[in-house]
Amino acid sequence: MSKNEIPNEIPGKEIKSIRMTGWVVGLVQLAVLAGIAGGLVLGGFLLFRGTMLERYIEKKIGYPCEVAGFDFDPRQSLIELHDVTIWNIDPFPRTPLATIRRIRLEWDPMRSQQFPKQLRLLEVELDTLTLIRLDGNRFNILYFVEALVEAWGSNADLETQNKTREPLHIEECWLLWDTLVALDEEVEGGKRMEVLVEYEAHHENVSRIRDITDPAIKTAKDEVDTFYFFNYLGDSLRSLLK
């Protein structure tokens, strides 16, 4: 090549171009891998989020549950669970303790780190609550309330256990309840009763779980006192006549 000819390519820039291309390819590959990893994580979350939620609830209260579906909107700071079944634990029969159509929780986005102890709204639409009595006058619902107090109760509820926790505060709570099923496992052969309750309660500035549960338990007790009394009386008379 004569000195008057202009080369088509400059060797130095060709090398730089090759190096730049390799850097870009590496960046693209990294982005693709990151996208695949992110997709796998998101897919796993979408696939197992129901199971994760069920495990969280069971770990929190000690009762196994099943959640058919839920809606979560972080922009509005709300989560809504649909068709929830909570199961009894030993020593009670492995039967549903409660079937719940809907649970809605809303919170202040500025206090998300305090969820679920600090809520703006709690709504519970309880379809069926099953009350079971075992020998020794042991009732499953009382065990369940104690589990709720242990998980979310206020400091006042936990004073006897020498535990200090962040206090509970629910600005507004609605509890709707349709049906009460009473099972008496204490009497021979067991007995069952089902009553329509149509219970509706509204609470404000809740600081104790018992503020919500105690009125509902009183309603249940009023409904089943006669049922359990006559079951026990009839069973005792049959035992005497044998």
Q: Would you kindly provide a written description of the structure presented here, covering whatever features stand out?
A:
The protein is α+β, with helices and mostly antiparallel strands. Helix content is 40%, strand content 33%. It has helices spanning 11-61, 140-152, 210-241; strands at residues 65-73, 78-87, 96-106, 118-119, 121-134, 138-139, 169-184, 191-206. Strands 1, 2, 3, 4, 5, 6, 7 and 8 form an 8-stranded mixed beta sheet that branches. Mean pLDDT is 78; it is low at 35-48.
User: How large is the count of helical segments?
Assistant: 3
Overall pLDDT score: 78
Biggest pleated-sheet summary: 8 strands, mixed
Q: Give the low-pLDDT segments.
A: 35-48
Residues in β-strands, percent: 25-35%
Order of helices and strands: HEEEEEEHEEH
Rg result: 30 Å
| Structure summary, number of beta strands | 8
**Bulk shape:** elongated
Measured between the Cα atoms of the first and last residue, the distance is: 124 Å
Q: Which class do the helix and strand fractions yield?
A: alpha+beta
Provide tags for this entry:
242 residues, 3 helices, 8 strands
Secondary-structure topology with pairs:
Elements: H1 11-61, E1 65-73, E2 78-87, E3 96-106, E4 118-119, E5 121-134, E6 138-139, H2 140-152, E7 169-184, E8 191-206, H3 210-241
Parallel strand pairs: 4-7, 5-7
Antiparallel strand pairs: 1-2, 2-3, 3-5, 5-6, 7-8
